Amino acid sequence: MIKLNVMVTLPDATRLPCGEIVATPPDSQGLVKGAFRYSKAYLDHSLAFPLDPVTLPMISKEFIAQSPAGVHAVFEDALPDDWEKNC
């Protein structure tokens, strides 16, 4: 199991743990199962905002990723990939 902490810097310059991504290693077909959950501290902060208003609303629940990468689209560009291998 892979766990990643998500940090956010709010408009008032407060740096806050926003939540956690958990994911499995790729299966035999290369698919990853993953999920995201907001932290309580983030949900309780007055300046917090949804990272993706459509797929990650500001509620306390586990959001299952519906992508082959195992993460929600909002996180895909922030994670390492194999783009350099294709150059």
TrEMBL record:
Record InterPro entries: HipA_N1 (IPR017508)
Pfam families for this protein: Couple_hipA
HipA N-terminal subdomain domain span: 34-83
Name this protein carries in UniProt: HipA N-terminal subdomain 1 domain-containing protein
Organism, scientific name: Desulforapulum autotrophicum (strain ATCC 43914 / DSM 3382 / VKM B-1955 / HRM2)
